[in-house]
Amino acid sequence: MVDKSAPDAARRSEKSRRAIHAAALALVGEVGYPRTTVEAIAARAGVGKQTIYRWWPSKADVLLEAFLDLAGQPAPGAAEQPYAIPDTGDLAADLKAVLRATVDELLDPRFEAPSRALAAEGLINEQLGREFVTKLLEPQLRLYADRLRSAQDAGAVRADVDPRIALELFVSPLAQRWLQRTGPLSYAYTDTLVEYALHGIAPR
Q: Which positions make up the signal peptide (predicted)?
């Protein structure tokens, strides 16, 4: 039995798909997620509302795919481009560099509105939340875990440290500050997170 709720990528017009993605991202940035509707997305993209519903079950799913496309994730069936956090031999420098790049992305207006919309909707829409974590967050977290494992192999991190837990020492505070707006995002802030995570806060 065919799952009619799942997007059928093979039947899509690439031009229409990109127009719908662009419309969804633009509207979320202009009027916010609650006021963005499938009807408005369709009108902005120049397609019929039913076209969107044939490919996506909801506006949240449209926005998720549009954001993944914007973030450079491979389309379904496309070959993935391998990426890893650079390993220069200096773990602190490598982590600081990638977190600085993350700050730039989080403060980029193109990313901020859809990121916040998806994060908020994912709290109440369990399925969307799982997809957001699986398709976007987990691949990024694996990069940090892989870099920490490399540091373990080099003797720069204790062998008994769980990389998946350790990465949360610097990733989670950054996410919380951004989501809850508890303070400004800056390179100095993320550099400090790395220093605290790697060296602790006890007197030296």
A: none
